[in-house]
Write a structure and sequence with these properties.
heterodimer; A: about 110 residues; mainly beta; 6-stranded mixed beta sheet; 4-stranded antiparallel beta sheet; B: about 110 residues; 7-stranded mixed beta sheet
Chain lengths: ~110, ~110
């Protein structure tokens, strides 16, 4: 069965960076891209960007351009999302989802606090 | 960016009764490939979102047939024919026509 398993919760200080991982199983990793979505506490869903697991092409949300980098490691079927220059309003649960958003990871809480 | 507007933002439904959620997009979601990239998700309390409907009206694997989607162009609707207790949560519509995905604000459904 398709599974996306994300790394654990993180606490970071403002200005720091965070890197969240998403390990895929149950399907051919390079056949689908991975999207990242975040959800601030009590808020809705915000798409952050997408990466092709086939060739590494990316498409980032405009508001995060320059602060976010998405990568994949096909040898381990793992996708990564790095967010830099963290601010308090980056506090959110971060989700990875398979390209067509049919399967989602369990979410990773990132807390940005001094 | 395409803006997705859902109504209502909250809904209280008696079990066994129908429910309907509207989603309007600021631009047509009909792609030149003939597909319409409109999706519906349910996020149950404390869980990740789960796909209900893709491309307007196709139910995802395992989704009960009491859920149905309809619409075209810029106007879409999710209907639940008979609401059950397990249907509580927040429903989101989402578009992805230009590979830039945006979600509606969400509609919170609770049981009376």
């Amino acid at each position: 069965q398709v599974q996306l398993v994300q790394s654990g919760a993180e606490v970071k200080k403002p200005g720091a960076s965070v890197k969240v991982s998403c390990k895929a199983s149950g399907y051919t990793f390079t056949s689908y891209g991975i999207s990242w979505v975040r959800q601030a506490p009590g808020q809705g869903l915000e798409w952050m960007g997408w990466i092709s697991a086939y060739n590494g092409n990316t498409n980032y949300a405009q508001k995060l351009q320059g602060r976010v980098t998405m990568t994949t490691d096909t040898s381990t079927s793992t996708a990564y999302m790095e967010l830099r220059s963290l601010r308090s309003d980056d506090t959110a649960v971060y989700y990875c989802a398979r390209e067509v958003f049919d399967y989602w990871g369990q979410g990773t809480l990132v807390t940005v606090s001094s | 960016d395409i803006v997705m507007t859902q109504t209502p933002l909250s809904l209280s439904v008696t079990p066994g009764q129908p429910a309907s959620i509207s989603c309007k997009s600021s631009q047509s979601l009909l792609h030149s490939d003939g597909k319409t990239y409109l999706y519906w998700y349910l996020q149950k309390p404390g869980q990740s979102p789960q796909l209900l409907i893709y491309e307007v009206s196709s139910r995802f694997s395992g989704v009960p047939d009491r859920f149905s989607g309809s619409g075209s162009g810029t106007d879409f609707t999710l209907k639940i024919s008979r609401v059950e207790a397990e249907d509580v949560g927040v429903y989101y519509c989402m578009q992805g026509i230009h590979l830039t995905w945006t979600f509606g604000q969400g509609t919170k459904v609770e049981i009376k």
